[in-house]
Amino acid sequence: MNWTYVFQTKDQIGTFFYFPSLNFHKAGGGFGPIRVNNRAIIAVPFPKPEAEFDLLIGDWYQHNFKDVRSKLNTTVWAYHMPPDGMLMNGKGPYLDPFTKAHESFTVTRGKTYRFRIANVGIAWSINFRIQKHQMVVVETEGSYTNQITLDSLDVHVGQSYSVLVTANQEAADYYIVASPKLSNATDNSSLVGRAVLHYDNSTTTPNGPLPKGPDPFDLDFSLNQAKSIRWNLTAGAARPNPQGTFNVSNVTLSQTFILQGSIIDINGVPRYTLNNVSYTTPDTPLKLADNFINGSDVYNLDEFPVNSSNPVAVDGTFVATGNHKGWLEIVFKNDLNVMDSWHLDGFGFYVVGILRIKTLSIVPKQSLYRGEIFIAPVLLATKFVLLRKASCRTT
């Protein structure tokens, strides 16, 4: 069966990827990169690179996703079934004895290249780095950023970044590494993604140890790096006017949702819940149910606790109503000991506060507009969403 999607990339530029978002289908693949280029009349805030490379990185299960999904529905496996490996563009790690192919990118000394990196995995945040090369972050999920130079970059599940890499080393081959966060994976483990940066006149293979990354358990590194990536206020993006023309600090909020994730057993089955509600995928897609039968017998409208937790954990299909063209503030809380990533299908948002204590640090002036946010353990984060869609119910 083939599907063709037609959509307008109005008011968007940048680096994205497509993926299935329900029923663990993402673990079966079905994802790919999306590039949205600037219109010719709008200047890009960096010189045109020699070439662009898409790099999809993600953890991977060797078993069929349906089998994995079934096991994760049991208390025996739910908390003890990590992914089996890390893939780069669907290929196994360089020199891994169980895989033949590995990813490689060919560059010319003295040239600069744009890598569009996305974490397409299920569970693990990653730290990305290239042996003996620095990278300049220039864009994330449709927003040009202030350009900062990094030795390594944390990319959390669902996030996408553009970085510029200049081939300024001796002609050779160099390791490209993606290692999992909150894991003790060793360098030669299949859990560490390894690819090759190949200079076009190189005659040597990568050598030496893998480039060392930050402590995978150092949450402050992840948090401080995320807070350092800010909106470029003077660059144009999808429109000629600068991104900073709009100041989110002037908006009037119409709604506030406070959402807290937790892990709990419901009827003996382990579940991840949001405000003590575990989402159940209905047989009828929500959009069809909304358009043709007004949701009757498919979902419960406005029964979801948007500012508190249900006293008892439940399964269900709950839909919350948003105010069309209103500004919604969403506050995420994470009391768990794992990274928590959030994505709103069809929406971007302004990240306006992020902190690891009970008081938020609000920084609306350079609030980064993006499509994905990670919430580290014991972290509070808030974002603003403009509900611009004609149908603005969110799940």
From TrEMBL:
Gene3D superfamilies: Cupredoxins - blue copper proteins (2.60.40.420). Coiled coil: none annotated. One of its GO terms (cellular component) is plasma membrane. InterPro entries: Cu-oxidase-like_N (IPR011707), Cu-oxidase_2nd (IPR001117), Cu-oxidase_C (IPR011706), Cu-oxidase_fam (IPR045087), Cupredoxin (IPR008972). Belongs to the multicopper oxidase family. PANTHER family: MONOCOPPER OXIDASE-LIKE PROTEIN SKU5 (PTHR11709:SF409), MULTI-COPPER OXIDASE (PTHR11709). This is Plastocyanin-like domain-containing protein. It comes from Camellia sinensis var. sinensis (China tea). The lineage of its organism: Eukaryota, Viridiplantae, Streptophyta, Embryophyta, Tracheophyta.
